Amino acid sequence: MTFLDWLQNDTAGLLTLAAVSVALLLIMIMRLRLEPFIALIVTGVLVALVAGVSVTDLVGTPIKASDSLFETGFAGILGHIAPIIGLGTVLGAIMERSGGADALTERLLRLFGPKGAPLAMGVTGLVLGIPVFFDIGIFVLAPLVYVAARRGGRSLVLYAMPMLAGLSMTHAFLPPHPGPVTAGGLLGVGMGWVIAMGLLCGIPAWLVSGVWWGSFIGRRIQVGVPEDLPGGAAPAAAPGPAGSARDAGDSNGDGDPGGGTGGVRTAETAGPQTAVAVAAPPSVALISSIIAVPLVLILAATVAGVTLPEGTVFRDVLVLLGTPAIALTLSVLLALYLLGIRRGTSMAELGRISGESLRPVGMILLVVGAGAFFGKVLQTTGVGDALAGSMTAIGLPVIASAYLISAALRIAQGSATVAIVTTAGIIGPTVAAGGYSQPQLALIVVAVSAGSIIASHVNDGGFWIVAKYFNMTVKQTLMTWTVLETILSVVGFAAAALVWAVV
Length: 503
Hints:
InterPro entries: Glcn_transporter (IPR003474). One of its GO terms (cellular component) is plasma membrane. This protein is mainly alpha-helical and about 500 residues long. It has one domain (about 5-225, about 280-500). It has 22 helices and no strands. The protein has helices at about 5-10, 10-30, 35-50, 55-60, 70-100, 100-110, 115-130, 135-150, 155-175, 180-185, 190-220, 285-305, 315-320, 325-340, 345-360, 360-380, 385-395, 400-415, 415-435, 440-450, 460-470, 475-500. Helix 11 (about 190-220) crosses helix 22 (about 475-500). The longest helix has 30 residues, at about 70-100. It starts with a helix and ends with a helix.
């Protein structure tokens, strides 16, 4: 047997090929600073050729390529996630520009009182984090955290950590954010189950990481509001990087919707430059209702699919309205009218806001598509089956394997998106052969997503955004934010493992 035959046909050879492919991927991203989607394509093509896939099967012919691994790998996932991520991005942009975050924060601060201000900021991050991407949430809420810290006279960390935990939890575990949407699409699980299990596992993780840890560390690390931010105005670099710190605008150049201005609209926090933006914000009830619409519709469709007989009109209506893209479209239309047109914003301005918010989405879709192609190659070549057999032989549950692989990739290269799509490709054959139920598949998605946020450190753009916006040194950021993300990850996975034992 030649070395090439061993690589292509022997289990040990296929496992070696898998290890080399992941190592090559990490080297291209971390050392060569190659865009992750390019690195994924290169790795996928090389693995396919080494594993003996024909050129025709890999890329098709000049006449027809629609059945090739390359095109089916990309198309299989992008048709599912592109409208969800795009609509979610537009919804978040409209929500952010309307001043809804300010209204929600002020209402919660009044409700919880001065002593409960850190918890109020946490709930704000939790609610606003559903439609708004992580970095946008920081840009919008950071000035309000400054105000709360000035009022309370305590460490900025005490107010920032609960808010960051809320934003991070929703970004990691709940649609329409790219991580859970991508993992759900690649593993074939309905978004309703992802929402249900994401909430079930994410809320306890937020309570421990944001409320308990935030309170503990916030009383031990004293950080003041930056002196150059009187009144809580955003930092000079408020627009931030072009991509999201979580999935895309990290040091790897992996593109997630980002941008934003960090501007605020309350009279207390607005400086001279933002005075024109001060206006009566929408009500908290209105903001909450618009956020709830897609979640309720998607969950209702999931319940209807399980409890109602096929062919009934009521079931069909709920399934139609609860299709994630349809539910988000309805929510976006409501937001366009209730937060835009009815409040005097022209359609031209709303179109501009929507267009600007969608510009960075292209990079994350490229990363996801390339990751899906890489996963398709692993499945076709038998690498995925070899890994599945090895995991079964050592007795490691698939949910644990999913978490550990995702966590290792996240720590190594910093990008949550790369960790998710690569992990889904590796465990895909195991999941497909396991006959898992939808709740179990959703828990695997939670495990993959939880692993993808562990131990945010210097190779993650989110680390630097948190350090800059909340006036912390690298050491302080490691002691606060890095530990918070690790707790959020571990507790989220632990909750998923506990639920896994009973579903």
